[in-house]
Amino acid sequence: MPSVSSLEELRGRLAAFAAERDWQQFHSPKNLAMALAAESGELLEHFQWLTEEQSAALPEATRDEVALEIADVLLFLVRLADRLGIDPMQAAARKLELNARKYPVDKSRGRSTKYDRL
Amino acid sequence: MPSVSSLEELRGRLAAFAAERDWQQFHSPKNLAMALAAESGELLEHFQWLTEEQSAALPEATRDEVALEIADVLLFLVRLADRLGIDPMQAAARKLELNARKYPVDKSRGRSTKYDRL
Amino acid sequence: MPSVSSLEELRGRLAAFAAERDWQQFHSPKNLAMALAAESGELLEHFQWLTEEQSAALPEATRDEVALEIADVLLFLVRLADRLGIDPMQAAARKLELNARKYPVDKSRGRSTKYDRL
Amino acid sequence: MPSVSSLEELRGRLAAFAAERDWQQFHSPKNLAMALAAESGELLEHFQWLTEEQSAALPEATRDEVALEIADVLLFLVRLADRLGIDPMQAAARKLELNARKYPVDKSRGRSTKYDRL
Hints:
Oligomer: homotetramer
Radius of gyration of chain A: 18 Å
Order of helices and strands of chain A: HHHHHH
Largest interface: A-B, 74 and 74 residues
């Protein structure tokens, strides 16, 4: 089974993939943000008529398709971040900190309320 | 600066974050796919009136906001994959292989045509 | 209460609104498709943590916000169609016909299966 | 050529279409908002690798496909509004008024800046 060990490795492989095909011309951040949103729409399509319970118990074949949609989103996300010079893991770490402050355990337990309405 | 060293670590931290707040009840795959798509829509919003050139030269403040949107997408993506028992890095590796086959260098150089029309 | 009586009237008012502000330069079909998708992401955000039942019984204030998001989607949809020279009502009529053929009553009753898998 | 003369007629036809197929069970506002967002993602896909100029000069076949995606968005939008008891034309009229106040001609001419930053 092929594998990729880190987002940094993935970033490098995607950059090489695009360079070999002379695709940098298409990979503006604007276009990549569109591709990312389009892929997240495809992900959505798998779930739109399912109940929440069904969504947690996908048939094997569907789960497989969903895995590839998740991969598509991840690929465009990493590529977009690369083109903007953003480190996604560092951004994620920063966001985790912000979320911990926005959603203190005692105020947000069992509630889906957005932080600005807590 | 806080850091996260791998998607696996991120997965664990998000699971703990949700468990502490009793948020598993909201985190069905269906709902997480929606949250992911909503965040990718917010990402889109930053770029919608920019030219491609402008999107590649964001002012520092905008780039900072975009970094946090990228983080949001990544967080929901990792959380969604976790709830489905999918390993996003393995899915990405599989997708890289498929893409290499769908887009051979000689046929796709300099062209944005979708593989099924190449 | 102000009113708009047809999509055609809406089209005209949006065209005038953009012309007065010299916004045609921003309103390429590409950009309008992005704005439409971003708005549909905002719509999504209102529903992402609700159960299906809750989504059918929104509090008045939420329903009001959702109505404005629906308006935003409609506005960009009409503007996009205008820029492409597409009549949305005619396209809708054509799609209704296609759907009637793709989803015959006897095969699709009570099933959310996509037409290509019926 | 079949035609539909108003959103109200479209609303009625979609309600009948769903009722005949016993699809009301799938048509919660939550699910319809997902379907709408998924369709707007498909719309996006047509434009993601095009320049703005290309997006304004689509080949006939592409324009035809785009017309059907626009129809899909409109159908789900009308159906969603119906399930929520929202009149989309009235919401659009209200939004036009709000936009006129948020974007005064003199302050917004030739600028894509969001109203809260004007």
